[in-house]
Specification:
Layout: H1 4-11, H2 14-22, H3 28-35, H4 43-61, H5 75-81, H6 90-111, H7 118-125, H8 131-140, H9 154-183, E1 187-195, E2 198-204, E3 213-218, E4 224-229, H10 230-263, H11 265-291, E5 297-299, E6 304-309, H12 312-320, E7 330-334, E8 347-351, H13 358-373, E9 385-387, E10 392-395, H14 408-422, E11 428-431, H15 440-456, E12 460-464, H16 468-476, E13 480-488, E14 493-500, H17 508-514, H18 519-613, H19 618-643, E15 662-665, E16 670-676, E17 683-688, E18 691-696, E19 700-702, E20 727-729, H20 735-752, E21 756-760, H21 767-777, E22 782-787, E23 797-802
Parallel strand pairs: 5-9, 8-12, 8-13, 10-11, 11-12, 20-21
Antiparallel strand pairs: 1-2, 2-4, 3-4, 6-7, 13-14, 15-16, 15-19, 16-17, 17-18, 21-23, 22-23
Length: about 800
């Protein structure tokens, strides 16, 4: 029986994914190894591979591509170096020098970024310094034509000077002879040429016996012979001897250079392996960046949660068709206990109309599971979760074989027999159209028995079906769950959106009517189907309509909640302004009262002086002073009340955090929604607008403690805290999609009290960047905008300041 991984990989088209990865490789060996990626053995090794891609992806996102140019294939030179006394050809030595130069530059690049990419830097640090060997080749061999330079050795330099001198002497001698023979019209041309490495004259054939010498060749017409006169034989012999000496010296130089590499062969092998590893990581990261893929959270238990998952080959198809937004993301969970249920779901039955996306959902889940086994990022949200399935079993597609006399049903049963023979707890089993190809009742009964067996083994099973009895079977069995692909009843077209918890109708009659079948035939078919069948289909259609309405109501409620939060923030802001104005008015009033009191006090003192002069009684004087002192005391008390700080709001205790709860994220001073309860590290997954993050519980407070500060008190973010700015990733979107996303994002940023945001649009052709900046230019909430600083995205990111 074939290996389950290999069989599943072929069915789910993993080789096409690996072929796309290989297209980003800079080396033949790296591309070959990417095409042969195999499942990793341990969770720790898989996590390391994912982290390496994450580090490289971070560099690529920042526009810092490692200097990995085309890497030569060194397999043949490395094999030759294993043979003692074998000299490499100049071209092979140049390939070694080229490789060493690339490796040296990559090591320097990673060393300068060790804090941001420690895993990659460790790979670079593991390479030996072979710069001496690199320079030796550069000094000895010309990179332009691969020839050995005169400066490669003093001996070679001297020999080549002797060759030039001897050749000049021989030419002079032949030219003197040619002059004499030419005067007697014995030469076809009075020039010196070369035949078989010897200088010769072009003598007319009829004079071959009249001139003493060696004939080396003759022309095709036979009218010319190439003669080496006897007077030049010794000179030509000298030239031949010097050329032989030159070849011997070149062989010696090449052998010496080869021996230098032979002495460090283990280090050279190590450097080669490290560079191929970095090349493969770069290819994986480049593909992940193109797919907008991420590393999910690895799970040791057999459970997975795919959020926003997309089939990578569909992404490539949409990219080729310039419709990347056409791929509908998939949310799928298995091996988890849904909210308000204690039973872990191991079996999922997906139903719905034909061409509604059921098989694509199966293939997406299976292919992404295989990609994780190979240590690759997957096109899904970063808060997705995936285990390392030991085995993935797949029965998708029609395996009918005329040659083997196997029908569709028989081929499916043969595959199911293999699966039942080998499936173990925790394995992933994907079954498309289970029970199809035979009598519906018998097929449904067999399907229930097979699903029950896999469920009892605790395999994670996803099956698609049109059998209504299987939908009921999943609805009534603990640990099983229905799901369906959404369908737009108004247009009778699939939406390709997955709905968990509800079975789906087949919409066979509706789709048939849309294709143009006579309505009378459809009514006849409904009658044949029976009232029970029609009522079940009607019930499912009604449930779907209610679910769609409920979803729209939820969207409306969220929008209304957002507006209410904004109104509340505005109210609190205005209330604070009113209170400040009230305090200001009181201060002015107290100041006026103080001035009045001073005037009154002077008046009273004058009155007292007059009373004394007029011999007034002491009791009258004392009463006047006491009344003045009482007024002064009240004014002083009012001043103290105004100068005292306002009472601090009582701190509310943070309640038990549950998904959906509104909280205040103190670090960003913005409202957020709890998406997941605290994990083992006491961190909570929250969403603030379109931003998602895992933050410590200590950074959260009750939502009622939110009070948006006045605009003047919002601190200006500098480059040191740029990482804390809210941001939106627009790469891969069309311009109209990006503008809609930015518009919503800016509204949420204003409500949250931010004064700066980051818009990530990438560099590319610059069309998306120009469209975004044109939009910001006329936006009423934008004060100014500029490109991000170097090292924080520069031309790939626009930082906008809100009014």
């Amino acid at each position: 029986m074939p290996d389950p991984f290999s069989s599943a990989a072929q069915t789910l088209e993993l080789p096409k994914v690996l072929q796309y990865l290989a297209s980003y490789s800079h080396s033949e060996l790296g591309a070959e190894r990417l095409l042969q990626l195999a499942p990793l053995a341990t969770l720790a090794e898989t996590q390391t591979r994912l982290d390496e891609i994450t580090e490289m992806r971070g560099l690529l996102n920042a526009g810092e591509t490692p200097p990995v140019s085309s890497l030569p294939d060194l397999r043949s030179p490395l094999q030759q170096l294993q043979l003692a006394g074998r000299a490499l050809e100049p071209r092979a030595l140049l390939d070694l020098a080229l490789f060493l130069g690339v490796a040296r530059r990559v090591c320097g690049f990673l060393a300068s970024r060790r804090e941001r990419c420690p895993l990659l830097q460790a790979i670079g640090q593991g390479m030996a310094n072979l710069q001496a060997q690199e320079h030796a080749i550069a000094a000895a061999i010309s990179s332009t034509d691969g020839s050995v330079k005169d400066s490669a050795s003093p001996v070679l330099h001297r020999i080549r000077k002797d060759i030039v001198r001897a050749t000049a002497e021989a030419r002079e001698a032949l030219q003197r002879i040619a002059k004499k023979l030419g005067e007697r019209d014995m030469l076809q041309e009075s020039m010196v040429t070369l035949r078989e490495g010897r200088l010769v004259l072009m003598l007319k054939d009829e004079y071959r016996t009249r001139v003493s010498g060696l004939i080396h060749d003759e022309s095709a017409s036979g009218k010319t012979v190439f003669l080496e006169p006897m007077e030049s034989v010794a000179l030509n012999n000298r030239i031949r001897q010097l050329h032989a000496a030159e070849r011997e010296e070149i062989e010696r130089i090449l052998l010496e250079l080869s021996d230098r590499f032979r002495q460090v062969l283990p280090a050279l092998h190590g450097n080669h392996e490290h560079m191929i590893a970095l090349d493969m990581i770069h290819a994986k990261a480049a593909a992940a960046q193109r797919w907008q893929a991420h590393a999910p959270a690895l799970q040791s238990s057999p459970r997975f949660k795919l959020l926003g998952a997309r089939h990578p080959l569909l992404l490539l198809r949409g990219e080729n068709q310039r419709e990347p937004g056409a791929v509908v993301p998939l949310d799928l969970e298995l091996g988890l206990a849904p909210a308000q249920q204690n039973q872990t779901i191991h079996t999922l039955i997906i139903s719905g109309p034909n061409a509604g996306g059921k098989t694509v959902a199966l293939k997406t889940a299976g292919l992404l599971a295989l990609m994780i086994r190979c240590g690759l990022h997957i096109p899904a949200e970063p808060d997705s979760e995936m285990p390392l399935f030991k085995n993935v079993f797949v029965d998708i597609g029609d395996r009918q074989s005329i040659e083997d006399d196997l029908s569709t049903f028989t081929s499916h049963m043969a595959r199911l027999v293999e699966i039942l023979r080998r499936a173990q707890p925790g394995d992933l089993v994907l079954l498309d159209e289970i029970g199809a190809g035979t009598d519906p009742e018998a097929g449904a009964s067999l399907s229930m028995a097979i699903l029950q067996e896999l469920h009892e083994r605790e395999c994670l099973t996803v099956a698609t079906t049109h059998h209504g009895v299987l939908k009921n079977f999943a609805q009534t069995r603990p640990g099983m769950r229905n799901g369906s692909m959404d369908f737009d009843q108004s247009t009778l077209t699939p939406t390709y959106k997955f709905r968990a918890g509800l079975p789906g109708a087949s919409y066979a009659f509706e789709i048939a009517a849309r294709t143009g079948i006579d309505p009378q035939l459809i009514e006849t078919a409904r009658a044949f189907a029976g009232s029970d069948k029609s009522s079940v289909e009607a019930l499912l259609s009604e449930l779907q309509a209610q679910l769609s309405a409920q979803k729209q109501l939820t969207v409306n409620l969220h929008e209304e909640e957002s507006r209410m939060r904004g109104a509340r923030a505005q109210y609190e802001e205005r209330f604070a302004a009113f209170k400040a104005q009230e305090r200001k008015l009181k201060q002015e009033a107290v100041a006026a009262a103080g001035a009045l009191l001073q005037n009154a006090n002077a008046t009273v003192e004058n009155a007292v002086r007059e009373l004394r002069e007029q011999n007034a009684s002491r009791e009258a004087i004392r009463a006047a002073k006491e009344s003045v002192q009482a007024v002064r005391t009240r004014v002083d008390e009012e001043k103290e009340n105004l100068q005292a700080p306002p009472p601090a709001a009582e701190t509310e205790s943070l309640p038990h955090l549950q998904p959906g709860m509104q909280v205040l994220w103190q670090k960003q001073n913005s409202l957020a929604t709890v998406l997941e309860p605290p994990d083992a590290a006491n961190k909570v997954l929250i969403g603030a607008g379109i931003l998602r993050a895992r933050v410590p519980v200590e950074e959260l407070r009750a939502a009622s403690q939110v009070a948006r500060p006045p605009a003047a008190s919002i601190p200006k973010l500098t480059r040191t805290d740029a990482a804390a700015l809210p941001e939106i990733d627009l790469r891969g979107m069309r311009l109209d999609e990006a503008i809609n996303a930015v518009d919503k994002f800016l509204d949420e940023a204003l409500l949250a009290g931010w004064n700066e945001v980051r818009l990530i649009h990438g560099k590319g052709t610059g069309a998306l960047r120009k469209g975004i900046t044109d939009y910001l230019k006329n936006h009423p909430a934008i004060n100014r905008y500029a490109h991000a600083p170097i090292g924080e995205g520069d031309l790939g990111v626009t930082v906008a300041e809100l009014r």
